[in-house]
Amino acid sequence: MSKPVTVAKVEEGSANGEQGSRWRWSTVLVWAGALAVLALLGWGLGNTDTPRPQAGAPAPAFEMEFFDGYEWQSAESASLEEMEGQVVVLNFWASWCVECRIEADLLESAWREYRDDGVIFLGVAYLDVEQKSLDYLEEFNVTYPNAPDLGSVVANRYQITGVPETFFIGKDGQIADVVIGPVDSTRLHTQISRLLTE
Amino acid sequence: MNQRNEKLTIVLLLLLALLCLAIPAVAQEPVTDDEVNEVARDLYCPTCENRSVDVCPTDVCADWREDIRQQLAAGRSESEIHAYFAERYGNSVLAAPPREGINWLAWIVPIVVVVVGALLFGRYLKGLRAEEATEDDDTIDVAQSTAPVPPPAADEDDYISRVEKEVREGE
Q1: Which of A47, A158, B39, B160 has the least C-beta neighbours within 10 A?
Q2: Which of A92, A188, A166 is nearest to A133 (CA)?
Q3: Using a CB-CB distance cutoff of 8 angstroms, which residues of chain B are in contact with residue A35?
Q4: A56 touches chain B (CB under 8 A)
Q5: pLDDT value, residue B156
Q6: Tell me, what's the ipTM?
Q7: Contact assignment for B156 to A152 by CB distance below 8 Å
C-alpha cells in the first residue's frame, strides 16, 4: 500500500528538480543578457568619453576630400599626415554660421600672407549643404583648401563644440592652440609666428 | 502656294517648339511642403536637441529642407535621400539607426527583452496558479476528511526519508 505513494512522491520530486534546473538556467540567461546590455552601454559610454583634443595633445588624424577648385597642391584628397612638418590652421565653419562671417576675411588675408612660409590653412565645412558652402566660399573670395566634413568624422575626432572653431597645429603634429568662436587678428598672427619659429 | 506652305510650316514648327517647352513644365510638378516634411521627419537637427528637421526653425535645417526639396524634384526616393544625409553628415542625423552591423542590436535587443520578459511572466503566473491549486486541494482534503490521518509506519517513514535525501542529492 505504501509503495505507490512513495513512487508518486519520487516522480514529483524529480519533476520539481527538472523544473528547478530549467528555472535556474533561464535565470542565468536573463542575468547574462542584462550584463551583456550593461557591458555594451559601458563600452559605448567609454567611447564617447574620450577627452577633447586640447593644446599639447597630438592632433587627431584625418583625411579630407576637397571641394572642386579648393584642393591642396592640386590633390583631390589629403591627410593630415601628408602635411607633417608644416604649420596647419584647421578651421571649422558653416555657411549658416553667422559668427563664421566675422573671421572669413581675416582667414583669407592671413592665408595669402603666410602661404609661402609653410603654413597650410584648411577649411572644414561642418553640417553644410554643398552648394551653400560653395556660395559662401565664393562670397568671401576664399582661396585656401576647403573640404566638406563627410560623415562629420573630422568634427567628431576634434570634438568641436560648434562653429567657428580653429585649431593651430604645429610642425610636430601637436595641437598648439584652440580657439572657440571667431579668431581675432592678434591671436592668429601670434600663433602662426610662434609656430613658424619652433 | 509655296509661300503659303512655308508659312504654314513655320507656324507648325513654332507650335511644336512651344509644345516641347511646355511638356517639362507640366511633367515637373512642384514638390509640396508635405512631401518635404515626410522625408525631413526622419532626420534630426544636428545642432539642437531632439528636434526633427521638419519642425526645426534653425538655418541649418531650413537649408536641409531645401536640399530635400531639390532631391525629391530630381526624382530621388525617401530612402536614397536618407542614405545621402547619413553618408554626408553621419548616422546620428537619422531618427532610427540603419539596419547594419552593430546597429542591429538596437533593433533586436528590445524585441528579445519583450519576448523573454513575456515568457518569464507567463511562467511566473503558471507557478502562481499551480500553487493556488495545491493550496485548494489541501483545504478540501482537510475539510472532507472525517478521520484523523494515521501516522505512517516507522519503516515507511524511514523509506521516504531516504528517497527524499537521494532526490536532494540528485539535485
Answers
A1: A47
A2: A92
A3: none
A4: no
A5: 73
A6: 0.76
A7: no
Q: Collect all residues of chain B within an 8 Å Cβ-Cβ radius of residue A150.
A: 87-88
For residue A143, give the C-alpha cell: 582661396
- Determine phi and psi for B74, rounding to 5 degrees: -80, 0
Query: In the numeric block, which cell numbers belong to residue B130?
Result: 499551480
Specify the pLDDT at position A2: 47
User: For the whole model, what pTM was predicted?
Assistant: 0.70
Residue A7 Cα, gap to closest chain B Cα (Å): 9
Q: Which of A24, A27, A97, A129 to mutate to test the interface with B (most CBs of B within 10 A)?
A: A129
A61 φ/ψ angles, rounded to the nearest 5 degrees:
-70, 150
Residues 109 through 138 of chain B touching chain A, CB cutoff 8 Å: 109, 112-113, 116, 119-120, 123
Q: What is the pLDDT of residue B169?
A: 85
B141–chain A Cβ distance below 8 A for any pair: no
E-strand ranges in A32-184 read: 63-65, 77-79, 87-93, 119-125, 146-148, 165-169, 175-180
State which residues of chain B have pLDDT below 70.
1-2, 18-28, 139-154, 171
Kindly state the cell numbers that stand for A105. 576675411
Helix axes B59-73, B78-89, angle to 10 degrees: 140
The reported pLDDT for the residue numbered B22 is 56
Contacts of A161 (CB under 8 A, 6+ apart): A180
| Interface membership of B164 toward A (CB under 8 Å) | yes
Q: CA geometry: angle at B53 spanning B98 and A132, to 5°?
A: 100
pLDDT, residue A186, reads 97
Give the one of A20, A127, A132 whose C-beta lies nearest to B171's C-beta: A20
Q: Which residues of chain A have pLDDT under 50?
A: 1-3
Of A6, A13, A127, the CB nearest to B159: A6
Tell me which residue of A102, A101, A76, A72 sits closest to A89, measured CA to CA: A72
Amino acid at B45: C
